[in-house]
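forwarding from the other thread:

> can someone predict this with NAP?

sure thing
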Amino acid sequence: MNRAFITGITGQDGSYLTEFLLDKGYEVHGLVRRSSTLNRSRIDHLAGNDRLHLHYGDLTDGVGLVNLVRSIEPTEVYNLGAQSHVKVSFEMPDYTASTNSIGTLRLLEAIRASGMSCKFYQASTSEMFGSTPPPQNEDTTFHPRSPYGASKLQAHWVTINYREAYGLFAVSGILFNHESPRRGENFVTRKITRGVAAIRAGLTDTLELGNLDATRDWGYAPEYVVGMWQMLQADEPDDYVLATGEGHSVRAFCEAAFSHAGLNWQDHVVHNDMYERPSEVDALLGDATKARTHLGWEAKTTALDLARLMVDSDSAELEMSLKK
Ligand code: NAP
Ligand code: GDD
């Protein structure tokens, strides 16, 4: 039986990947962090599936990872766990590096030391391109602009090194931003769509944001987790960019989200310096030709579709909670 081990199972991507793999008949094992309150809302609906198993652990705990890899004996490992917020990485650089860089190394080393021949997926990111101008593809020079980007670049290279040094089937998906109704509430798209829902419901009148000029290549998370799986089914391990090929500014995303709710964004959006970063990534726009050609993967949902579907979802969620 195919047996997957997923770090970051409680996150946006982890939850969609778990649904996808369970549908494919996999046994899925997930790493969950101990916290004083349960933090599993994205996978609660999957509880009770007898092919889903959760294990306490943390990417900062190497011994725990060694024990888990040995006991689970996974055929595929998806390393999605990370301190994934760019702005927070400036405030917690040490923890970000320990989780994202050394955490990846710990997991790869646990796999190597186990002697098992399982495949490994690393969640690399377009943030590694940083200030290198778009379009960006697998051959583009990296120039990260945050402790987060730098931590992910080290993890990216260590993944390549374990492939070259030990012959591990280890791949990196260099994923551009991908969003969904399950996106963390402090990433800009979700912050905007939740803000629109609250303004439409009359709960507030303003939404505070930072830099509106940055452009991003925003895709739809459920489509991107399929690409992760496809990378592990390829004949040879390799690295791939997943992106839509469309760039939109934060301002344009705002405009689309507010206008979908019949609102004018300029009446509500207020600038707050607090949300600016010490160094910004101005423009990300991916070229996913290699994934399309080699894997047959293609993004279908655009950023403007996303703005609409996320506003609808946040409005419905808010309406339900107000009724309660
Ligand atoms: P997310 O929603 O922030 O989820 C992050 C996951 O990592 C959560 O399950 C979190 O657990 C877990 N985690 C955090 N620190 C950990 C630690 N020390 N040990 C073990 N687990 C830990 O992120 P996402 O959007 O799903 O992204 C998934 C991965 O892809 C991340 O590695 C991210 O950096 C990368 N990525 C994301 C995007 C994107 O646009 N979404 C693009 C490129 C790459 P808790 O629930 O307990 O906090
Ligand atoms: N979060 C946030 N909050 N961002 C804001 C805000 C705000 O109030 N106002 C403007 N922005 C701008 C940021 O400065 C950035 O240029 C852009 O909106 C997107 O910010 P985020 O949504 O936080 O995402 P990110 O691009 O920094 O990082 C995400 O994508 C990466 C892939 O490129 C994360 O998911 C990373 O984990 C991922 O690797």
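The two ends are 43 Å apart (CA to CA). thats all i got for now
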